[in-house]
């Protein structure tokens, strides 16, 4: 018995923005972006909301799983760009999709959202169906997890070092309790402190509207993290994603290999037996680097970055949908998902299809 992935789906905004489109607004070239990242275009939500994209991906995953909205007992939306702070993104999607019986909440693990979201949903499912600890809980037979981000809202479109990397989209998966088959075999979640702020964004803390005097605050993330004294706080306010690219690159390539190795050990399955590895799509070069470090050929990795860029919490779930659609994953296959992102967060999981 176990928690099986039974449905998948993705949704993208209509507008595509090519590298040449970006070269018209910042000092960059198609060649530079392709060579350094593998990205050729990304989608940008100009008419769609986060709710629109998440709901469409969720609807497709339900259809794929052959379930009705009423069948879903739990909805988790993984996002850093919800349409509102309250109600949560998950509550908005629950209403849109008519998930009458679902409890719904958001989870922010940035680009590791897919791994964290599936781990949390499957843990809740296993605890409720297996009756762990003799505690009576909401029974969760079917869960929907949706990774969704409209990063275009928090990207500085004048900063060539970041704006070429990111895109918008949504990916979804249905997880169902199965009395016969195992489903998710092992998971591994980690956090390391981002004390040097490799990846940060203050976006929601615009305290300039407070009606009373501010003595040395606002409290941007640099101050909260202790990397900058409070009196320097105002200068370091980051309304958009700020990033130390090379530091993130090194971190990502290292932890991806560690996470995959650990999850294989936990599952008792050698990495050679994994039919497909679906990594976070941040940079094709990061995936190549990790592939070398792991000694796993690139052909076994799902690479979907070319047309969508880095879509944060949606990335792994969108790439997973691509792998299923391309029939790279067949019943019984072992599949590894691996992610990393702001926090810093990272992790991996292995499931049997
Ligand atoms: N177009 C043209 N030149 C650019 C550019 C762009 N879009 N962005 C940066 N450059 C320039 C830099 O200014 C620098 O110029 P200089 O040598 O004159 O100073 C040069 O290109 C090299 O910059 P560098 O940062 O060393 O490039 P890089 O090879 O490390 O690639 C990233 C930059 C961002 C693509 C790469 O570091 C990366 O992908 N990091 C990880 C980012 C990530 O995954 N973030 C999300 C994690 S969830």
> Which blocks of ≥5 consecutive residues have pLDDT under 50?
none
**Number of H/I helices:** 10
Can you say what the CATH homologous superfamily of the largest domain is? Thiolase/Chalcone synthase
Shape: globular
**CATH class call of the largest domain:** Alpha Beta
Structural class: alpha/beta
Number of domains: 2
Features:
23% strand, 13 strands, Peroxisomal Thiolase, Chain A, domain 1, 2 domains, globular, five-stranded mixed sheet, 353 residues, alpha/beta, four-stranded mixed sheet, binds coenzyme A
Describe this protein's structure:
The protein has 353 residues and is an alpha/beta fold. It folds into 2 domains: 2-181, Thiolase/Chalcone synthase (Peroxisomal Thiolase, Chain A, domain 1, 3-Layer(aba) Sandwich), CATH 3.40.47; 185-196 and 242-352, Peroxisomal Thiolase, Chain A, domain 1. It has helices at residues 19-23, 30-37, 50-65, 89-97, 113-130, 160-163, 221-224, 245-267, 284-294, 315-325, and strands at residues 2-11, 15-18, 41-44, 74-78, 103-107, 142-150, 168-178, 184-191, 199-200, 242-243, 274-279, 334-341, 345-352. The model has no long low-confidence stretch (mean pLDDT 93). Coenzyme A (COA) is lined by residues 28, 32-33, 36-37, 111, 160-161, 164, 243, 245-246, 248-249, 252, 282-283, 310, 341.
